[in-house]
Structure formats: structure tokens, C-alpha cells
């Protein structure tokens, strides 16, 4: 990629990953009904797939794709009063729109990257691709984990070996 393309703000792709410039920020997103809106003001740090049973039930899919922002880079810009949360006793908070039910993000203060934004909630390409899979010990039997070369963790990727 040339310096000129970065200065011009052109989106370039390398190995299938979108490269964003600071002119692409903030990233925006929200729920289906539009009541809740959020923004991310810096590049996302990492993205991951979660195969846990809670994510399967929450999303209705075999795995949930989540993007993790830098500390302080994520904020709700509209509809904070419409947000609802489920706080399971033994896991992170699950935040969703109380009007339409859209799952928007999770929060687990015990993790180094405590916010997990549901990648489907972004308005456009968030510029990051999942690079790790976690809770694969609970993967849905009806959809095999692809042989995509991503590191796979039987439990949380935050668990110490």
C-alpha cells in the first residue's frame, strides 16, 4: 500500500482484511429499529468467534462474531434508555435493544478487552476479521468448525493454560 492511498483515505485490502484510515472513524452501528446507536472512535483491537451455548442461543447461530474496541473507544450515542441487559451469574453481561431485541454488545469487566460488539450490528465493514475461536468444546454439532487455520480454544481465549 502506498502512502498516497493512506493520505487519500482510500480503503485498501490486504489478505481479505479491510484497512481503515482515521477518516473512516467513527465506525457506527445500532439495532434493527434504530432506537439504539453506537460508535467506535478508534480501530478495533481484535475480533473473535464465540461458540459457547449462550452465544448460540442468543444469536440463533453456531458462533457469534464479536469485535473488541480499544478501551474508551466505544460509546452509546442514542437510545441508552432503550438498552436492556441480561447479567448471568457466571458470565459477561449481554446488552440488547429493549424495543426490537437486537443483540448489540457484551461486557465482561474481568477480561483485558471487556467490550464485545456484535459484528452484525455495525453499519459498514468494521475493518477487522475474527482471528481466534473460543469455547469450541461447545460447538454446535450441526455446523462443523471450519478448517480456517484460526487458533481454537476449548474454553475462553482469556483462560490461562
What are the salient characteristics of this protein?
161 residues; mainly beta; Metal Binding Protein, Guanine Nucleotide Exchange Factor, Chain A; 3-stranded antiparallel beta sheet; 2 helices; globular
Topology record:
Blueprint: H1 3-8, E1 12-14, E2 17-19, E3 27-30, E4 37-40, E5 46-50, H2 53-59, E6 64-68, E7 74-78, E8 83-86, E9 93-97, E10 103-107, E11 115-118, E12 133-134
Parallel strand pairs: 5-12
Antiparallel strand pairs: 1-2, 3-4, 4-7, 5-6, 6-11, 8-9, 9-10, 10-11
Structure description:
The protein is mainly beta and 161 residues long. Helices cover 8% and strands 30% of the residues. It contains 2 helices and 12 strands; from the N terminus they run αβββββαβββββββ. It has helices at residues 3-8, 53-59; strands spanning 12-14, 17-19, 27-30, 37-40, 46-50, 64-68, 74-78, 83-86, 93-97, 103-107, 115-118, 133-134. The strands form 3 sheets. It has a 7-stranded mixed β-sheet. It is globular, with a radius of gyration of 16 Å. Residues 1-15 have low confidence and may be disordered.
